[in-house]
Amino acid sequence: MTNIVESFKKIQLNISKINTDKIVNIIAVSKTFSIEHIKPLIDYGHLNFGENKVQEATSKWTAIKKDNENIKLHMVGKLQSNKAKDAVKLFDYIHSLDNQKLADNLAKHQMNLGKRLKYFIQVNIGNEIQKSGVPINEIDSFYNYCINNVKLDVIGLMIIPPNDQQTKKYFQSINELNQSLALKELSMGMSADYLDAIQNGATFVRIGSSIFGSRSQQ
């Protein structure tokens, strides 16, 4: 299991070689992996972990987060509105805010539970039918709704770019959009492309297999 920590250190080293003045947060995406598999990285002191299903995350992380309040849990998958309450209870960041109904539910449960999460608006940068996210031409109005109408703490945008060999173009485009909204954080980049993402302004990268290994082995 120590190879997980070595893999993580290698990613840190790769990031340290990039000329950026921004702090880059590595989200270790631990979805489908057991706590036993993840534990070496927790013990090493890493604090940012990502999950994409509320139910799985609740069973894995509830006790650990009670013992270690410094751990930050990131929801990186599609979030259904009916799971908003459970998500607010457990998570610290939501990277997949993508519709008004979800924003309304999250705001309501935040208030009821006395919590304040940080949010990324997921943008459907390639207008892909099969992907979640707000279309680019609706970002301004949705962002204004989230911060003005329901008072969510939106800190940045998030994308999962199309798999069409034009990743850098999408990264550049979303970075410009993020800056136009004067947002300080940007969630993009995974195991295959996190270095390109950081060179285009990413401050949160979501890395799973390069840390924990192939999910097909689970």
Could you describe the 3D structure shown?
This protein is an alpha/beta fold and 218 residues long. The chain has one domain (2-14, 24-217): TIM Barrel (Alpha-Beta Barrel). It is 44% helix and 17% strand. The chain is built from 9 helices and 8 strands. It has helices at residues 2-16, 35-44, 54-67, 84-90, 100-113, 139-149, 167-180, 194-199, 209-212, and strands at 25-29, 48-51, 72-75, 93-97, 118-122, 153-158, 185-187, 204-207. It has an 8-stranded parallel β-sheet with strand order 7-6-5-4-3-2-1-8. Helix 2 links the parallel strand 1 and strand 2 (48-51). Helix 1 (2-16) crosses helix 2 and helix 4 crosses helix 5. The radius of gyration is 17 Å and the shape is globular. It starts with a helix and ends in a 6-residue tail after the last helix. The model has no long low-confidence stretch (mean pLDDT 94).
Number of domains: 1
CATH architecture: Alpha-Beta Barrel
Please list the strands of the largest sheet in the order they lie side by side.
7-6-5-4-3-2-1-8
CATH class wording: Alpha Beta
CATH superfamily membership, which one? Alanine racemase
Cα distance spanning the termini: 14 Å
The largest β sheet comes out as: 8 strands, parallel
Percent strand: 15-25%
Helical segment tally?
9
Compute the average pLDDT. 94
Number of strands: 8
Instruction: Round the Cα radius of gyration to an integer and report it.
Output: 17 Å
